[in-house]
Design goal:
The chain is an alpha+beta fold. Helices cover 55% and strands 20% of the residues. It has a five-stranded mixed sheet with strand order 4-5-6-8-7.
Length: 283
């Protein structure tokens, strides 16, 4: 559509106040109108002509493809983010059901049996027997709460939080851990620290659940232009292309992607496995 001030003064003012002429071309991709490309006032003052229309039509075709691609990428990122969140919730539900709920149920059964006997000595023994499982479940709940939002990250900072996390996971997985943490220099954004912590957490959780490793190295180093994270284990390895469900790789890649970085997973059946990420500080 070509419009002049004589035809639609009000419409032109809505596009650009004081405009005299305009040419409007729709952005169409696979039959869907995604928007409008508007040319306002030629520099030489002449009305828009047929050649101007053809030029804008060719530009609009490329622009429509770009808009459609951007929408597709945004939708895919949202899907990946939702998938990662669902995987995390499913893992927490399994942990609560398979560990905490079962442990609490067992402790309650022991206490109920002691109460039913109506014997003070028997009740005392039942309470003593239930004490250890309750202590274990309290620790499990603390670990789960820490996974949901690590207090150490807020209170102590990224370095001590990762060190504490590595120590806890090593104890849970029965492996030794070596940490190298160098975080001097430029101050980091909060979301970057959270992303690095979560990626280290997920990588170590995979070692505990899947790797059967003896030794793990955790390296987090701040370089001049980016923050680097490496978690390497000497375990049994896996095929990265096939490991999606249960390994949390989608969520880890999404965290890196949203901060302008990238995640790399190198492994093979028989091991070793190395998970690394680089996040640009400028992001």
């Amino acid at each position: 559509m070509r419009v002049t001030a004589d035809q639609d003064r009000r419409g032109l003012d809505q596009l650009t106040p004081g405009a005299n002429t305009a040419i409007l071309v729709p952005l169409i991709f696979q039959g869907e109108i995604l928007g409008v490309l508007a040319g306002i006032d030629r520099e030489d003052g002449r009305p828009f002509a047929e050649e101007d229309e053809q030029l804008l039509l060719s530009v609009a075709a490329s622009a429509a493809t770009a808009v459609a691609t951007a929408r597709s990428v945004a939708a895919e990122r949202l899907r990946l983010s939702l998938d990662a969140a669902e995987q995390a919730r499913a893992r927490w539900a399994r942990d609560l059901h398979d560990q905490t709920l079962q442990g609490l149920t067992g402790a309650r059964m022991v206490l109920s049996a002691g109460i039913a006997r109506q014997d003070p000595d028997g009740l005392r023994r039942a309470a003593e027997a239930a004490d250890a499982p309750l202590g274990t479940e309290m620790r499990n709940l603390r670990d789960l709460i820490s996974e949901l939002r690590p207090a150490a990250l807020d209170d102590l900072g990224l370095g001590p939080a990762i060190g504490s996390l590595a120590t806890r996971q090593a104890a849970a997985g029965g492996f030794t851990v070596e940490t190298e943490i160098e975080l001097g220099g430029t101050e980091r954004a909060r979301e970057m620290e959270t992303a690095i912590y979560r990626m280290v957490q997920e990588a170590l959780s995979n070692v505990v659940r899947h790797a059967n490793a003896k030794h793990v190295t955790v390296r987090v180093v701040q370089l001049p232009e980016h923050l680097e994270m490496i978690v390497q284990d000497d375990g049994q390895g896996f095929a990265p292309a096939a490991a999606i469900e249960g390994f949390g790789l989608t969520g880890m890649r999404e965290r890196a992607l949203l901060l302008g970085g990238e995640l790399s997973v190198r492994s093979a059946p028989g091991g070793p496995t190395c998970v690394s990420a680089a996040l640009p500080l400028a992001a």
